[in-house]
Amino acid sequence: MARPLVKVCGMTRMEDVELCVDLGVDLLGFIFHPKSPRQADPDFVASVKTGKVAKVGVFVDQTADEIIEIMDRCGLHAAQLHGGQDMNACWKIGPDRVIRVFWPNTYASPSALLNDLDYYSEVCGHFLLDAGSKGQGGTGTTIDFAMLQHIEIQTPWFLAGGLGPHNLKEALAVNPSGLDINSGVEREPGIKDASKLREVFKILAEEE
């Protein structure tokens, strides 16, 4: 069984970028949100050359035009939308470049979540299901895996929310297309823990 895509988010240091690339990550996430302790400097992001590894910008308050401008400046391959960006914004950015975030714990039922996912399926290349509520991220809170056990999501989707070596196998059990890892592999916000990152990839190799 092929492993899911792996995205490591909250990148702020070149040494962490280099380690992630060496370990075989598929996507690197850079946060463009002033309130985040992991906010990335655009000049740093633009300087990151990753070869085949995709660069993803994480956006909360920005408009579609602002997002596109930052994507062009920093050489981003995709935009992860955490705010209130609507379908028109997704179209403008480009559906194949949009990862839209949803928070399953805020829905009354799995069917209500699926209704929203279906609504946005034509304007998003990927979904990301995160713990917490709108605008949050990197909280270390773990998503309710049980809610995802019995729903079938047609659009490729990432699972996020406090993922790390301690709960990776449980996360893999819900068969996500991708894993979004951040606070679960950090020493402090924005500073990755090399041993935890290596452990994640060791577990993934064992599960293949």
Q: How does this model look, in words?
A:
This protein is α/β, with parallel strands linked by helices. It has one domain (5-207): Aldolase class I (TIM Barrel), CATH 3.20.20. Helices cover 31% and strands 20% of the residues. The chain has seven helices and ten strands. The strands form two sheets. An eight-stranded parallel β-barrel has the order 1-2-3-4-5-6-7-8. α1 (14-23) packs parallel to α7 (194-207) and α3 packs parallel to α4. The longest helix is centred in the C-terminal third of the chain and has 14 residues, at 194-207. The radius of gyration is 16 Å and the shape is globular.
The level of helicity is 25-40%
Strand content: 15-25%
Given helix and strand content, the structural type is alpha/beta
Radius of gyration: 16 Å
- Give average pLDDT, whole number: 92
Query: Which homologous superfamily in CATH is the superfamily?
Result: Aldolase class I
Number of helices: 7
By CATH, the topology is TIM Barrel
Question: Could you give a short account of the major beta sheet?
Answer: 8 strands, parallel, barrel
**Any idea what the CATH architecture is?**
Alpha-Beta Barrel
Q: How many domains make up the coordinates?
A: 1
Tell me the strand order in the biggest sheet: 1-2-3-4-5-6-7-8
Question: Tally of extended strands?
Answer: 10
